Amino acid sequence: MQTHPNVRAVQDALNTADARDGSGASCRVRLLPDAVHTAAAAAAALGIEVGQIANSLIFDADGEPLLVLTSGAHRVDTAKVAADLGVDALRRATPEFVREHTGQPIGGVAPLGHPKPVRTLVDVALQQYPEIWAAGGVPRAVFPTTNAELLRITAGTAAEVA
After folding, report:
1. Which DSSP symbol is given to 47?
2. Using H for helix, E for strand and C for coil, what is the string for 74-139?
3. What are residue 38's phi and psi, to 5 degrees?
4. Which helix (H) or strand (E) holds 16?
5. Could you tell me the residue ranges of all domains in the chain?
6. Looking at residue 26, what DSSP letter applies?
7. pTM value?
8. 69 forms bridges with which residues in the sheet?
9. What is the pLDDT of residues 74-101, one digit of tens each?
10. Rg of the chain on CA atoms, in Å
11. 5-159 maps to which CATH number?
């Protein structure tokens, strides 16, 4: 089976970052049997709590992309995040905006592997889990990691986003 270019880009970025999972092994993108477009579907497919899913949500922050990696158990409080960042408007990005800035489709946006770095916030609620799962570039690709690794490999900032 051919590997999708987005999955290759994410795996290459993980390798370059020397990213590790919860056991200390190298992070490897895994393909699920079916696409998972929600945190609940991903958690069910993996047999884990929905809160362990690091949802990758791209927002339009005054015209600039903002990636918020939030626990699957939360919804982003856009007014709070906008106020915390000092931006006038924080809007859910269009599919075209997401693809332009990440090269990836909504539902499969990974925390890394984008054409250029995207400002990233990481939900502090993810700290409670020894292992979390993030998208791998397409809706059926995922990889395991830890909160500390997610912060490191994305150069993200821990934030209260819910």
Report:
1. T
2. CCCCHHHHHHHHCCCCEEECCHHHHHHHHCCCCCCCCCCCCCCCCEEEEEHHHHHCCCEEEECCCC
3. -135, 160
4. helix 5-16
5. 5-159
6. B
7. 0.94
8. 56, 122
9. 899 999 999 999 999 899 999 999 999 9
10. 14
11. 3.90.960.10
